[in-house]
Amino acid sequence: MRASNPIVISVLLFSTLLALQVVNGALVNNFYRRTCPLAERIIQDVTFRLVRSNPGLGAQLLRLQFHDCFVRGCDASILLDTVGTNPSEKEARPNLSLLGFDAIDQIKSEVERVCSGVVSCADILALATRDAVSFPFKNRPRWPVLTGRRDGTISRSSDVTGNIPSPFSGFDTLKQIFEKKGLTVSDLVILSGGHTIGVAHCGTFSRRLYNFTGKGDADPSLDPKYANFLRTKCPNPADPSITVEMDPRSSASFDSNYFKILTQNKGLFQSDAALLNNTSSSRLVRSLQNPRFFSSSFARSMLKMAAIEVLTGNNNGEIRKRCRFVN
Ligand code: HEM
Ligand SMILES: *[C@@H]1O[C@H](CO)[C@@H](O)[C@H](O)[C@H]1NC(C)=O
Ligand SMILES: *[C@@H]1O[C@H](CO)[C@@H](O)[C@H](O)[C@H]1NC(C)=O
Ligand SMILES: *[C@@H]1O[C@H](CO)[C@@H](O)[C@H](O)[C@H]1NC(C)=O
Ligand SMILES: *[C@@H]1O[C@H](CO)[C@@H](O)[C@H](O)[C@H]1NC(C)=O
Questions:
Q1: Where are the domains of the chain?
Q2: Which cofactor does it need (predicted)?
Q3: 123-142 pLDDT, tens per residue?
Q4: Cα(170) to centroid of ligand 5, in Å?
Q5: Any idea which residues carry the catalytic annotation?
Q6: pLDDT score at 138
Q7: Closest among 28, 146, 156 to 92, alpha carbons compared
Q8: Distance CA 310, CA 31 (A)
Q9: SS3 call for 109
Q10: CA–CA separation, 11 vs 296, rounded Å?
Q11: Fold for domain 171-300?
Q12: Beta carbons within 10 angstroms of residue 313's beta carbon
């Protein structure tokens, strides 16, 4: 994949974009064309600068965007700080270690300097995520991003429950959560490929290593040699300061290796392993080992995820001045 022709990729992305214009309704290509023509350029420049000093930023933002879109839609509600006594989304239990908030603040303030009150935090998150993940493949955006989202004004930690899947979820729960968002089982499998980059804390999977059923046993669906390796990384009880790669030895590269290790029973979470527990999803896991197929599929599913319950038009939401606070 590394050597692929950029023109072929552009054509692929473009046709994906055309095909999805319908699905994405009100979102459009380059929404700020007239109101802030430099917006996408500034976002990309700042993002590239930030990734250079923090190579993990792509993974951090990708997870942040996922958590944003699955709770009240892609409205940047995940970015809001708690005000008063009602805890915001980012305080909820599954936030465990969400990062990237400071990067969004920096990008937003550089955009505001040029176009004040024009570009939404929700669009900045979507664009910066794409740019950060694409950075190691300079000049080769991994997926197209449509824009025109507005920012929500509500963020409640209680809304997180039941909308963000847990690493202990089985197939049926995962399927249900994705279907509630208008995403299919295929989208579930394809987007789980986001775990090709980034890291996880030991506590999210250590039960599989030490005490799967409460009898001091390991999860039989986890490769025993890989479980041995993970036990050397993660002593029992789980140390909250330790993280491991989700896609071993390939966690910095956005490739299809996640689907290969999955078929070797080396998926890190029960929710990863669960993708093998259904005939049609496990067939898709095998197909997605093909890098080109993974690449084009991921782009298509990201367009769908990035359009979940978006606020658009002039009467919905607002354009926040600061991403952590409503105006
Ligand atoms: C299918 C259900 C999913 C579950 C149960 C799940 C669960 C998790 C968990 C538990 C972590 C580790 C958090 C930590 O310990 O710090 C994680 C990390 C991550 N997830 Fe997911 N996830 C799911 C789907 C997705 C999707 C759809 C995406 C994006 C397309 C995604 C992208 C990521 C990324 C990039 C990381 C690494 C973050 C970092 O390195 O900071 N995940 N996920
Ligand atoms: C995540 O939630 C916990 C409470 O469960 C809170 O203490 C922590 O500050 C939150 N993390 C972020 C990044 O807001
Ligand atoms: C394993 O789980 C059981 C039941 O939850 C608990 O009583 C026991 O202390 C755990 N053992 C270890 C080694 O964590
Ligand atoms: C998948 O199915 C196997 C049995 O075929 C079962 O042992 C395992 O617990 C299931 N895994 C998940 C995550 O549901
Ligand atoms: C697998 O998932 C598909 C799609 O949700 C469903 O139609 C099918 O019944 C499932 N098969 C099994 C064996 O659970």
A1: 24-164, 171-300
A2: Ca(2+); heme b
A3: 999 999 999 999 987 778 99
A4: 13
A5: 67
A6: 73
A7: 156
A8: 14
A9: helix
A10: 11
A11: Peroxidase; domain 2 (1.10.420)
A12: 9
Amino acid at 271: S
Whether the CA torsion 96, 102, 105, 111 is positive or negative: it is negative
Instruction: Compute the average pLDDT of residues 148-161.
Output: 96
> Does the pLDDT at position 311 exceed 80?
yes
Query: Beta-strand (E) ranges in the chain?
Result: 199-201, 243-245
234: Cβ contacts below 8 Å, ≥ 6 apart: 202, 205, 206, 209, 242, 244
- 263 and 289 in contact (C-beta within 8 Å)? yes
User: How do residues 248-265 score in pLDDT, each as one tens digit?
Assistant: 988 889 999 999 999 999
3-state helix, strand, coil in the chain (%, to 5): 50, 5, 45
CA 272 – ligand 1 centroid, Å: 10
Number of neighbours of residue 80 by Cβ within 10 angstroms: 24
For ligand 5, atom 10, name the residue with the nearest CA: 278
255 is in an annotated binding site: yes
User: For the structural domain made of 24-164, what CATH number should be given?
Assistant: 1.10.520.10
105 is in an annotated binding site: no
Q: The tokens of 250 are what?
A: 């390939």
Closest CA to 65 of 74, 52, 56, 53: 74
The answer to whether the beta carbons of residues 255 and 193 sit under 8 Å apart is no
Q: Which ligand is nearest to the CA of 212?
A: 3
Query: CA torsion angle for 9, 11, 14, 15 (degrees, to 10)?
Result: -110
> For residue 321, which of 111, 127, 50 has the smallest C-alpha distance?
111
Domains 24-164 and 171-300 share a fold: no
pTM of the model: 0.92
